[in-house]
Amino acid sequence: MGRIISNFFIALDGVVEKPETWHMPYFNDEMGAIIGSGMQTNKAFLMGRKLYEEWSAHWTASTDEIADYFNTIPKYVVSSSLRDPAWNNTTVVPGDPEAVRAVKDGVDGDIAMSGSATTARWLLAHGLLDELRLLLHPIAAGEGQKLFEGNATHKLELADCTTLSTGVLNLAYRPVS
């Protein structure tokens, strides 16, 4: 059975949107190794429709090693409106918890999920997220979508924590039942 692991670059104020505007000064070989390690264990990728549209346009036009990774890994898109995905190795999954559970049952290994706070919150609310990995940057982004918005409460336990030389915290949390 697969485990869904959500990954985010996150600012101290909870912002996860547009990390390209605040994240890069903190990127170094340490962080690259953490990201690379996660990519090596991933057997599939789960995303929402908006991220699918953004990433399929970007990665299909790219030719580097990371593009090869995203273009070949099995991808599952949670969507009720996407009908004919053109991106290689993509399967559309209806936006209901049982369909996502079926994906988890069918994948032997980690299923990465990134880039959509909305999808991460939906997975948490339905008991589908197995781990939340955050690279917490020592910056307040000031504006943008936050990982947690609204009134929902999600109890998490710290599973792992390391500090990078840049002051970024590499955090892993697991939902508490």
UniProtKB/TrEMBL annotation:
InterPro entries: DHFR-like_dom_sf (IPR024072), RibDG_C (IPR002734)
Domain Bacterial bifunctional deaminase-reductase C-terminal: 4-169
GO biological process: riboflavin biosynthetic process
GO terms, molecular function: 5-amino-6-(5-phosphoribosylamino)uracil reductase activity
Domain of life: Bacteria
Gene3D superfamilies: Dihydrofolate Reductase, subunit A (3.40.430.10)
SUPFAM superfamilies linked to this entry: Dihydrofolate reductase-like
Chain segments annotated as coiled-coil in the UniProt record: none
Protein name: Dihydrofolate reductase
Organism this protein belongs to: Prauserella shujinwangii
Species classification: Bacteria, Bacillati, Actinomycetota, Actinomycetes, Pseudonocardiales
